[in-house]
Amino acid sequence: MFIIMLGPPGAGKGTQARNISKKLNIPHIASGDILRERVRIADDELSKKIREHMLRGELVPDDIVIKIIHDRLSQNDCEHGAVLDGYPRTLAQAKTLDAFLENKNKRVEIVINLDVPDDEVIKRLTYRRLCPKCNRIYHLLFNPPKNNELCDICNVKLIQRIDDREDIVKKRLEEYRNRTSSLINYYAEKHILYIVNGVNDINRIFNNIIFLIEEAIKPV
User: Is the entire prediction scored with pTM above 0.90?
Assistant: First the structure.
C-alpha cells in the first residue's frame, strides 16, 4: 500500500515513516533526504538549483521533485507500496502522483497528517544536530551528545543542517502553511486524510497511526 505522511517540518514524519516501513515491510521514501543527498554528492546544475532553494527556505520546484521521486518509485522495491515522507508537498505534486500510480493500477490508500504547532517545530529543529560521518541525529535539549557537540560514536563535531537554522525554519513553516492547505483539502475530499496529534509519546503516535492504517484497509 502507498501511505503519505504530511505535517510541518520537524513534526516527526521521518521517525514515524521509518517505523511504518519496518512494520509493513515497504520502503521509506523521504524526499528531503533524497534532495539533500543529491546536493551532497553531486555538483551539477540541478544540485546547485536544489541547494539555492534550500538555503532560501523555499520548496524545491515541482518539476525537479516530481522527476526525482517518480524515478525512485519506479524501482522494484516499490512494487508493493511505499511510505512517502515529505512528498507530495503541493497540489500539483499530489495530482501527478495520483496519475503516476493510476498508470500502475495503484493508488494512495491513506494520508496521515501529523499536527504540531509552529513553536514546537522551531524548538525541535533549531536544536537538532547531525553527525556528518555516521548521520546519527542528536537534539541539544532532548537527546544531547555526551561530550559537548561531538558525536558519541565518531567523536567528530556535530553540524546543523542548513535548513534547520531558525530563520530558514520560519520560512519553511510559512511556505508549508501557504502551499499545503490546498493539499490537505484535496485528500480530505477523497476521505483518506487522518489527523494525528504529533505532540505525544513517539510510541503512542505510532500505535495511533497503525490503528488508522489497519482500519483503512479493512474490507468493507
Answer: no
Sequence-ordered list of residues with C-beta below 8 angstroms from that of 43, at least 6 positions apart, any chain: none
Give domain 2-216's CATH architecture: 3-Layer(aba) Sandwich (3.40)
- Alpha-carbon torsion angle 171, 173, 177, 183, nearest 10: 110
108-115/2-6 β-pairing = parallel
Distance separating the N- and C-terminal Cα atoms of the chain: 17
**Using one digit for the tens of pLDDT, what is the confidence trace for 80-89?**
999 999 899 8
Residues labelled as active-site residues: 13, 89, 128, 161, 172
The set of cell numbers assigned to 90 is 503541493
- Cell 534547520 locates to 164
- What residues have CB less than 8 Å from 16, skipping those under 6 apart? 5, 112, 114, 202, 205, 206, 209
In the chain, where are the structural domains located? 2-216
